[in-house]
Amino acid sequence: MIVLHATFPIDPERREDALDLADHLVEESNREDGVVDYRAAVDVQDENRIRFFEQYEDEAAVEAHENSDHFQRFEEALPELLAGEPEVLRFEVSDVAEPDL
C-alpha cells in the first residue's frame, strides 16, 4: 500500500475556491480503482491549511490518479490557491493493523 500525506497552505482569499476543488477531488478520487481511501481535512490549528490523506493499493493506482482529469484540474488551480510551499510525504506500507482501543 502507498500512503500520501499532502499539506497545502491556502491563500485565505481563495479558501472557498480551494475547499470546493478539494471536495470535488475527494469525491471523484474515491471512485477510482485502486484507491483505498482518499480524504481531505482542514487543519484545526490553521483553517487555511488543507491536508490530504491518500491510500492506494499500488503504484499503478497512484499513477492513474495523477493522470485523472479531476487531479489535473486541482493541480492546475494550485498556483493561484497557494499561500506557500506544499509538503507531500509518501509512505510505502507493508503491513496495516487496527490497534485495540
Report on the structure:
The chain is α+β, with helices and mostly antiparallel strands and 101 residues long. It has one domain (2-51, 60-86): Alpha-Beta Plaits. The protein is built from three helices and four strands, in the order E-H-E-E-H-H-E. 15% of the residues are buried. The model has no long low-confidence stretch (mean pLDDT 96).
Large-scale geometry: globular
What's the total count of β strands? 4
Assembly state: single chain
**Rg value:** 14 Å
Strand order of the largest sheet: 2-3-1-4
Q: Report, as a whole number of angstroms, the end-to-end distance.
A: 23 Å
CATH topology name = Alpha-Beta Plaits
What characterizes the major β-sheet? 4 strands, antiparallel
Tally of distinct domains: 1
SSE run: EHEEHHE
The unreliable regions are none
* Name given to the CATH architecture: 2-Layer Sandwich
| Mean residue pLDDT | 96
Number of helices: 3
CATH class: Alpha Beta
- The proportion of residues in beta strands is 25-35%
Tell me the structural class.
Answer: alpha+beta
User: Roughly how much helix do the residues carry, as a percent range?
Assistant: 25-40%
Quick description:
The protein has 101 residues and is α+β, with helices and mostly antiparallel strands. Helices cover 36% and strands 34% of the residues. It has one domain (2-51, 60-86): Alpha-Beta Plaits.
Please specify the SSE layout and strand pairing.
Elements: E1 2-9, H1 15-29, E2 35-43, E3 46-56, H2 59-66, H3 69-81, E4 87-92
Helix pairs in contact: 1-3
